[in-house]
Design brief:
This protein is mainly beta and 408 residues long. The chain contains two helices and 25 strands. The protein has three domains: 97 residues, Immunoglobulin-like (Sandwich), CATH 2.60.40; 98 residues, Sandwich (Immunoglobulin-like), CATH 2.60.40; 158 residues, Immunoglobulin-like (Sandwich). It is 5% helix and 33% strand.
Length: 408
C-alpha cells in the first residue's frame, strides 16, 4: 500500500474536522423525521416539576392516541428517590394510563415517573423514546371533592345545535374510567338516556350523541357521584343542568383568533409557552401533540398540551408547553392542524390552504415573562383560575424527544 506523506495526512485531518469536530447542542427537539404515527405524550398529572402534590395522588399520562393496555402495564413506572420502583397498579382507559400507588406516597419526597418505549398504541406503533418527568409531594391527603366548573351548553341554554357534544369541565383532574355512560348522562323527555360515546381529556368530559339530538327538544344532563378525581374522591352530589335544542346544525368551522407569541414575533423568551385562542369551545380530546406542535430546523419540540376555558368569551385556549427551554436565536414554527375540532365536530379553518393554522416567531437569548397582547392567549394551563407566576420550565428527566395555569 502506498504510504501517505505527512502533508497529505494533515490535509485529510483538516477535511474531517467539520464531520467529527462539532459538538451537538443540547436540545428538546425530536428528529425532524420522527414518525408522527407513533404515540406521543400529550399531558401528565402531576405536571413536570409540580410541588406539594397530595400523598394519595394517582399518576396519569395522556397520549396522542389510544394505547394498548398490556403495553402500559409494562412501561409506566413510578420511581422513588432511591431509584427503586414504587409498588402499584396501572389502569388504562383509551388514551390515558394511570398508575395507582399501593400506598400513600411519602411526604416531602421527589418522585420520577417514566414511560418506556414498550408503550404502544392499539395499532401497534411504539413510543419513540423513553419519556420521564418528576414531581415533589407535599404533606397532605387530598380529600377535596371535585365539582363541575363549567358546561357547554350552559344551563338553560336555548337554540343549541342538534349536532353538538355535551361537555362538562371539572375543578380537578379526573379518573377517566369513572366517566362513562352511567356517570355522564343526557336524557330526553320521559327520562330515557340518549346513546353516545363519552370521552375525557384534561379535566373535561364530553358525550357525543350517537344520533343528532331532536330539534326543539328539552334535554337534561347529569354528572353523577360516580365521577371521581385522581385521588379517588367522588362528586359530593349529582350535578344537573338542562338545555333546549334549536332546529339547526352547527356547521361553522372554528378559527384561531389570536396567538402568543404573535406571528413574526422577535426576541421571544426561551422559556415561552405557545398558545392559541380559538373562536369557539373546542373538543379537548381533539387537540394533542400530534396536531398542535412546535418545530425548528432541528425538528419537533417535545412538550405537552394544556387547556383553559374562557367562560366569559366562551372560547378555548390551548397551550403547548415545551419540556425544556427553546434554543436561543432560533426560528420556530407553530402548527395546529385540521384534526382540532369544535364540539360539533367541525374541523379547524386555519390560515393555510390545507386548513392548518401556522405561525412563526424567533427566540432571543434570555428567559423572562412574555408580553401578552390584550385579547390574545396568555401562558395558561389547565382549567383553573390564574395563579401567581411560576418559575421557568426545567428539562424533564430522561426526555429525549408532549384546564389553566397562570401566565409566566
Amino acid at each position: 500500500m502506498k504510504k501517505l506523506t505527512p502533508l497529505k495526512m494533515w490535509f485529510i485531518a483538516l477535511m474531517l474536522i467539520p464531520f467529527f469536530g462539532a459538538r451537538p447542542i443540547p436540545s428538546n427537539a425530536l428528529s425532524q423525521d420522527a414518525d408522527v404515527s407513533a404515540p406521543m405524550v400529550s399531558a401528565t398529572s402531576p405536571e413536570d416539576g409540580a410541588i406539594a402534590v397530595s400523598l394519595n395522588q394517582a399518576i396519569a399520562v395522556t397520549f396522542s392516541q389510544e394505547m394498548s393496555g398490556p403495553s402500559m402495564d409494562m412501561s409506566l413506572m413510578l420511581l422513588g428517590p432511591d431509584g427503586n420502583p414504587v409498588s402499584g397498579t396501572v389502569n388504562s382507559h383509551s388514551g390515558t394510563a394511570i398508575f395507582v400507588p399501593s400506598a400513600n406516597l411519602e411526604a416531602g419526597t421527589t418522585y420520577s415517573a417514566t414511560v418506556t418505549p414498550e408503550a404502544s398504541g392499539v395499532a401497534g406503533a411504539a413510543l419513540a423514546d423513553t419519556y420521564g418527568w418528576s414531581f415533589t409531594t407535599g404533606a397532605v391527603i387530598d380529600s377535596t371533592t371535585p365539582t363541575v366548573s363549567a358546561t357547554s351548553p350552559l344551563d338553560h341554554a336555548i337554540n343549541v345545535p342538534v349536532n353538538q357534544r355535551v361537555l362538562a369541565m371539572f375543578s380537578k383532574k379526573m379518573t377517566p374510567a369513572s366517566l362513562n355512560r352511567v356517570t355522564v348522562k343526557v336524557t330526553k323527555p320521559g327520562g330515557v338516556a340518549i346513546m353516545g360515546v363519552v370521552t375525557y381529556a384534561s379535566g373535561a368530559a364530553s358525550l357525543k350523541p350517537r344520533y343528532a339530538l331532536a330539534p326543539n327538544t328539552h334535554y337534561i344532563a347529569t354528572i353523577t357521584t360516580g365521577a371521581k378525581d385522581l385521588a379517588g374522591n367522588p362528586m359530593a352530589s349529582d350535578y344537573v343542568w338542562s338545555f333546549d335544542t334549536g332546529a339547526n346544525r352547527d356547521t361553522v368551522k372554528p378559527t384561531v383568533t389570536s396567538t402568543n407569541p404573535v406571528n413574526g414575533a422577535l426576541m421571544v423568551p426561551i422559556n415561552q409557552n405557545v398558545n392559541a385562542t380559538f373562536s369557539k369551545v373546542m373538543n379537548y380530546a381533539s387537540i394533542n401533540t400530534a396536531n398542535f406542535f412546535l418545530a425548528s430546523a432541528a425538528g419537533r419540540v417535545v412538550g405537552t398540551i394544556t387547556y383553559f376555558y374562557d367562560s366569559f368569551n366562551k372560547v378555548t385556549i390551548a397551550t403547548f408547553v415545551p419540556n425544556a427551554n427553546l434554543r436561543i436565536n432560533t426560528l420556530y414554527t407553530a402548527t395546529i392542524t385540521t384534526a382540532a375540532r369544535d364540539l360539533a365536530g367541525n374541523p379547524l379553518a386555519g390560515d393555510k390552504p390545507s386548513g392548518n393554522n401556522v405561525w412563526q416567531f424567533t427566540t432571543g437569548s434570555a428567559t423572562g415573562l412574555a408580553t401578552v397582547p390584550l385579547g390574545a392567549a396568555a401562558n395558561l394551563r389547565y382549567s383553573q383560575p390564574p395563579r401567581s407566576p411560576t418559575p421557568p420550565l426545567r428539562p424533564r428527566l430522561q426526555a429525549t424527544s408532549d384546564c389553566g395555569r397562570a401566565p409566566r
